Amino acid sequence: MQESGIAFCLWKQKANFIFMAISRAKKEKILKDLTKKLKKAKLLILLDFQKVTVPEVQILRKVLKKEGIDYLVAKKTLVQKALQKNKIKDLVLKDLKVPVSLIISKEADPAAARIIKDFQNKTKKTEFLKGFLEGKMLEKNDLIMLAGIPSREELLAKLISSIASPISGLTYALKGNLTSLVSVLSQVSKKKTR
Q1: Environment class of residue 144 by beta-carbon count within 10 Å: exposed (0-12), middle (13-18) or buried (19+)?
Q2: 92 and 121 share one domain
Q3: What is the pLDDT of residues 146-158, one digit of tens each?
Q4: What whole-number distance in Å separates Cα of residue 192 and Cα of residue 84?
Q5: pTM value?
Q6: Computed over its alpha carbons, how large is the radius of gyration of the chain?
Q7: Per-residue b/e over 8-18, b at no fewer than 16 CB within 10 Å?
Q8: Do 137 and 130 meet the contact criterion of CB atoms below 8 Å apart?
Q9: Helix spans in the chain (H)
Q10: Which domain holds residue 25?
Q11: Rounded-to-10 torsion of CA 128, 134, 137, 139
Q12: Number of domains observed in the structure of the chain
């Protein structure tokens, strides 16, 4: 389960992840890659993933990848060092008692939070822990609220609908008035011809 040298979780055994010991050189490469990804990130979400199976992670990773979002698993110490190198000091991982996975998005779009929320609703196995959005710390409740924000396309559709609604109402009103006017004129013309 290795993606760009960052994820190194091997398998799951009775809800305890077993991590392979890695060399210092490998850790330095992971730290470098993670630091680079975090530098470009506008949205970072930390998840508790300890109950998630490998096939479920693969499905989630595919869905996120379609949206241009990265899903990574790394040791908390390496993640913390990468965060510090990117001057994100507010996010402290040592207090978290569970292994974490990272959702990294280069956009400030709440799509990542929505995808995770949908995954949570289907599987009941993950949990938001913390996050970071354009320099601001997010707690679990903030991430849940972020997941509830409609997508850009949904917002544009609602806007267009609300703009078009009065116009179509005006069209029907004018059409109704014109129909009434034509009807009155037709009756007046009938009276004059008699």
Answers
A1: middle
A2: yes
A3: 888 887 788 788 7
A4: 91
A5: 0.68
A6: 27
A7: bbeebeeeeee
A8: yes
A9: 24-40, 54-66, 76-85, 111-123, 140-147, 152-193
A10: 9-149
A11: -30
A12: 2
Q: Give per-residue pLDDT as tens, 34-58.
A: 889 888 888 989 888 888 888 999 9
Rounded Cα–Cα distance for residues 91 and 138 (Å) = 9
* 3 state DSSP class of 109: coil
| Cα separations in angstroms, 148 against 5, 136, 143 | 33, 18, 9
Residues counted in the chain: 194
- Structural domain includes residue 133: yes
Q: Which tokens is 19 given?
A: 């991590």
Residue 49 structure tokens? 């993933």
Q: Are residues 37 and 80 in the same domain?
A: yes
Indicate whether 43 and 102 sit together in one domain: yes
Do 93 and 14 lie in one domain? The reply is: yes
Q: What angle do CA 47, 4, 140 make, to 5 degrees?
A: 10
Q: Are residues 155 and 144 in the same domain?
A: no
Neighbour tally for 70: CB within 10 Å: 21
Residue from 66, 5, 65, 70 nearest 43 by CA: 70
Angle at 183 between CA 178 and CA 185, to 5 degrees: 95
In CATH, what number is assigned to the domain containing residue 17? Answer: 3.30.70.1730
